[in-house]
Write a structure and sequence with these properties.
The chain is an all-alpha fold. The protein has 3 helices and no strands. It has a domain at 14-58.
């Protein structure tokens, strides 16, 4: 049971955290003023930074190349 729970958080932990950050960022932008707007900018920038990092980051090797290097 513990291994199942650990696997769940390994797979879904980051997407849940990004969703919570996005939701809190949108709510703080709509409901708050002053420092809340700065907080919303920061919270909404995190998912964008994650997207840019994985979009522009190094590309993984193709599966055919990975299998050829193992032989």
């Amino acid at each position: 049971m513990t291994q199942q729970k650990g696997r769940f958080w390994f797979v879904w932990g980051a997407p849940i955290a990004l969703g919570v950050l996005s939701t809190l960022g949108l709510l703080s932008a709509l409901l708050g003023t002053g420092l809340w707007h700065w907080g919303s900018w920061l919270m909404l920038a995190v998912p964008i930074l994650v997207i840019v990092r994985y979009w522009c980051g190094p590309k993984p090797a193709a599966p055919s190349q990975a299998n050829a290097s193992r032989q």
